[in-house]
Request: fold
Amino acid sequence: MAGHAGVFSCAADLAVFAEHLLGGTGPLADWFAESRRPCTAVEPGLHRGLAWLVTADDDVAYHHGFTGTSLFLAPRTGRYVVLCTNAVYHGWDRARLAGLRTLALRTLAG
Reply:
């Protein structure tokens, strides 16, 4: 369980954060590696780490924020995708974002 409500920021700031996580060294690299270590299975091919949903092959780690913002990171390739949406505008049903989030994940996954 992580002590946060999600990803809240603008695309430019999330890009800087993603680049630091993917290119980090020392304690930052250690934290990112540990925080995406699979802790529990969510469904076939997907696990939950401390702060991330992680594909079984560790190709992609991602997090969806409450408001609809998502951050997808591909540690092996150094690529990332930032989605900035306003999910709360349309109510609690996040189904409208599912296709876009799936596309982002597939774009980065092996």
The helical segments are 11-23, 27-35, 95-108. The chain has one domain: 11-108.
